[in-house]
Specification:
This protein has 64 residues and is mainly β. The chain has a 5-stranded antiparallel beta sheet, with no helix packed on it.
Length: 64
């Protein structure tokens, strides 16, 4: 699955910050993730107490 910048996603799990699991956020990346992020998507706008996180594709689902 591939995402685009601005896509709303449900974070099903997050190795980077487990507190983000179960919350929604928005994909920040303009291009598919690469070596700089170890193949993980950058997700922000999650919660006032949780900053930007890096999530693998398997940790994300599209959110309506």
């Amino acid at each position: 699955m591939s995402f685009r910048a601005g896509d709303k996603v449900l974070i099903t799990s997050c190795e980077d910050d487990p507190r983000a699991a179960g919350l929604t956020g928005r994909v920040i990346d303009e291009a598919p993730p690469g070596p700089l992020t170890d193949g993980r998507w950058t997700v922000g706008s999650i919660d006032i107490h949780i900053g930007t996180v890096l999530c693998r594709t398997s940790e994300l689902q599209p959110a309506g």
